[in-house]
Amino acid sequence: GAQAGLGFMYEPGEGVPRAYAAAVHWYQKAAQQGNAQGQTSLGLLYEEGKGVAQDYAIAAQWYQRAADQGDSEAQYFLGLLYLDGKGVRQNYTLAAQWFLKSANQGNADAQASLGFLYLEGNGVGQDYAQAMQWFLKAAEQQFGDAYNEIGVLYFFGHGVPQDDAEAFKWYRKAAELDVDAGLLNLGYMYEYGRGVPKDLSAA
User: Fold this and answer.
1) CA 23 centroid distance within chain
2) 52-89, pLDDT tens digit by residue?
3) pTM score, two decimals?
4) DSSP labels for the chain?
5) What is the tens place of the pLDDT at every residue in 41-53?
């Protein structure tokens, strides 16, 4: 509660000078009292090495405590550590499980990450239709990378019927958010007249 809030005030430098050590102090107090937000915030400071020596293993421990309480951000961050093998042994299956818990609570980052796991078959069976479903959920929250990946799935006809017009539509949405891959893919569509009338001037 109040202590986690006070830690948050110190962290971004709002109202008081930027002082990560003070943020660590207050988050630690909140975290030790079982406050999930404090645990997640403390984990993030350990992961990033702000106010403390960078330590992925300690970050993972704090994320785990908050994740076990149902904190969707902690579940997502813990999934990333398992995905990258930082502070924990790399485990795609556990990454997928934590992403799923977070994604089911509406976390767009986790939804997109789960989409990528299904796309690549890491920790889950490769399933383009499942990838599409998770990318669509993330896209509902204007998640730019998800827009691009939906376009890719339509472009290649993976999990959906091949459809250049749909691919173009999703690439354009990604490009409007300045997603690099979306910009490149949209340029390709214009250059080769895929999904739009051939129009090199707009590429």
Assistant:
1) 24
2) 999 999 999 999 999 999 999 999 999 999 999 999 99
3) 0.87
4) -HHHHHHHHHTTTSSS---HHHHHHHHHHHHHTT-HHHHHHHHHHHHHTSSS---HHHHHHHHHHHHHTT-HHHHHHHHHHHHHTSSS---HHHHHHHHHHHHTTT-HHHHHHHHHHHHHTSSS---HHHHHHHHHHHHTTT-HHHHHHHHHHHHHTSSS---HHHHHHHHHHHHHTT-HHHHHHHHHHHHHTSSS---GGG-
5) 999 999 999 889 9
